Amino acid sequence: MLEIISGAAVKKLDTDFIAEKGITSHRLMENAAQAFCDWFEGEYHRNDKVGIFCGHGNNGGDGLAIGRLLWRKGYDVIIFLVGGDAKVSADCRLNRELLPDKLPAISMSSDDIAHMEFDLNVVVDAMLGIGVNRPLAGDFLNMVIKLNALPNVNRVAVDIPTGLPSDECLEGEAFKADVTVTFQYPKFSLMFPEHAAFVGILHVANIGIGNKFMRQFSQNRYYLQRKDVVSRHLNFSRFAHKGDFGRVLLVGGSYGSMGAIRMAAEASLRTGSGLATCLVPSCGVDILQASLPEIQVFSSSSEKYLSLPYVKEGLERFDAVGIGPGMGTTAEAEDFLLDFLMTFKGPKVIDADAINILARNKGIQQYLGREDVLTPHIKEFERLVGICENHKQRLEKALEFSKAHGCVLVLKGAHTCISFPDGTQYFNSTGNKHMATGGAGDVLTGMITSFLGQGYGVKNAVLCGVYQHGLAGEIASVDKKRGTIATDIIKAIPKSYVTLGVD
Ligand SMILES: NC(=O)C1=CN([C@@H]2O[C@H](COP(=O)(O)OP(=O)(O)OC[C@H]3O[C@@H](n4cnc5c(N)ncnc54)[C@H](OP(=O)(O)O)[C@@H]3O)[C@@H](O)[C@H]2O)[C@H](O)CC1
Ligand SMILES: [K+]
User: Fold this and answer.
1) What's 346's domain CATH number?
2) Domain containing 457: what range?
3) Nearest ligand, CA of residue 175?
4) 3-state secondary structure of 439
5) Taking the model in full, what pTM does it have?
6) 112, 386, 456, 498: most buried by Cβ count inside 10 Å?
7) Is 181's C-beta closer than 6 angstroms to any atom of ligand 1?
8) CB 125 within 8 A of CB 182
9) In this predicted complex, what is the ipTM?
């Protein structure tokens, strides 16, 4: 499991690793540069014109080493030195000395920056890394503004975009990368949505620092990757019957909003549930029966909204419940929800309007159990805990909420963050902007509910559900891009199993 750690911890970790392994800091920098170049070679052609912008610290040292290695491989490289000659770090200086004579390296004065004209396809930003400790000013700021404004170039940041603090929210300006190649462990601030325009796509490059070293710096934050979820999947025997794959109940829908619960139900079936049943207001029965023949449907008493009374007998036959999509927030839906949460004691995914209703009720603790999972997007979350100043505060409050209520909290978005009552947080690595479409959250509800119903423990159900939902979104958007809709994500769920190699 890959740790997400603070910038300060990275520095200490590097020092400890170097001391214990008996290698030099220069060697570690060389490893980092090599890892970057391995990735770079898979992305860019030798005829691309590559400009590498290097600062005076170790991030700049990385840039110089990258320039040397790419140049040796035949890339058309030019190096720009920013930040002057004062305070050059030892490894940066060594890498300046190691530059081949024929590799062009230009020291940029303030005047050069102001008047510079570029003829580049790829800009590599190695001006400042995790050592940044104040907002950009002077030459760094001017260079960043200039590079950000360049049309038709690919921008790649080394370790972290210049100007971005590794643990806090950005104040001022920063390099706007299309891709950030971060070394060994994602830095905390790379997870913040406020920084999306600066980080671009995140790639993690392994530079050989083993988990053993990371563990002592653990901040209980993890980056959820493929290898972490494959082993969490249950295997089913060839004698398995539909009961083994779980019976799930999807509860929600209202007049005019029946699609949400239909999508949750279909997603649960595509994730593998043996049987899916929907509980909806009576106006939804025909709609659901006609549009999804694989499900069963029953209804509560009133026509347009879920309401009291409803059939409670036999609810215990369901292994898991997903509740909330499309249910509305009327008084009758509220009475129904609170009653249902007190009645059904098995694992539940609580989403959408069910969260909005809970948010306006006091003492919600009584409705939540240890196997319950809340899946708010940012607005729904802030209805629960109040408006937050920034994403960092949101993440803190998400963890507090999970600990205080003993439930799992899935804060949806790019790098969806899953908080557990044991104090751990997992940040998802799958998914993309094309999943920002109506109904994508309902699909997630169906998927997590399905895993809970299949008998996955709550932790595995949530980690597998969130990861695989993002993966299905990636698969769906390969040939649909911004035309991807939620039902495309559902259709891609079976392929996500194929991709994971899970039966
Ligand atoms: N394991 C790894 O992750 C490895 C990372 N490496 C790379 O090293 C950098 C971090 O290098 P470091 O030298 O600590 O810091 P920077 O290069 O980011 O910054 C250098 C100095 O710049 C000064 N500074 C800070 N903020 C500003 C600013 N706004 N404007 C101008 N200058 C600024 C600061 O010094 P001061 O004395 O002026 O405060 C910084 O110290 C990491 O990101 C990786 O790229 C290694 O290669 C090894 C493996
Ligand atoms: K950088």
Assistant:
1) 3.40.1190.20
2) 246-500
3) 2
4) coil
5) 0.95
6) 456
7) no
8) no
9) 0.98
